[in-house]
């Protein structure tokens, strides 16, 4: 299989928010970027916003059994995968005792199991080419305790552990694995959460030394760096992009 000089990236959850910002930055760098999501309409809107170097493919990653064939399809269409960004994830706010087993498993399935299965299938391909960069999107919820998001916190803590384990095993094969832990970022999701809860917003900003929320493109810039040759000696890190939130008092 001939290796093209142009890199190919998969960004899951690429239709909105942080995933969209990462896809925009990749496409602007000349990387062939495949955004993956469940909602075709959302993906189409993202495509028109991003413009060239971007393609959309629908896949419900929660259906683990469908992932191997999905990766095969991408390889058939694009020939290779150089970069994988595991950004797709779901959150659920509920009091601890109200979370059902089904609730918990649903979050773990999407946020952990799908990341594992997609990474495994992509790594099989990266291994043969002895090169690749995987970026997992973690969260502040893995850095400190947040109430009412038990399943999400468990899932993102698992992502940090998986990132280090994957990096240890895969880096000798030329595959780097890192994570980004976004702080409070201005997205439609956070706007909704904060507008209805000003006290929570004040608390979030109060413990962020820089004193303001980040923008999705701040995460995009970090992803471009970690995926690039500028980061060729960086693997196994969980990089907080959070205005100091994780160390703030």
Automatic annotation (TrEMBL):
PANTHER family: 5-KETO-D-GLUCONATE 5-REDUCTASE, ALCOHOL DEHYDROGENASE, PUTATIVE (AFU_ORTHOLOGUE AFUA_3G03445)-RELATED. It comes from the Bacteria. The keyword Oxidoreductase applies. Signal peptide: none annotated. The keyword Oxidoreductase applies. Residues 7-183 form the Ketoreductase domain. Belongs to the short-chain dehydrogenases/reductases (SDR) family. It holds the Pfam family adh_short_C2. PROSITE patterns: ADH_SHORT. It comes from Flavihumibacter solisilvae. Keywords: Oxidoreductase. GO terms for molecular function: oxidoreductase activity. This is 3-oxoacyl-ACP reductase. InterPro entries: KR_dom, NAD(P)-bd_dom_sf, Sc_DH/Rdtase_CS, SDR_fam.
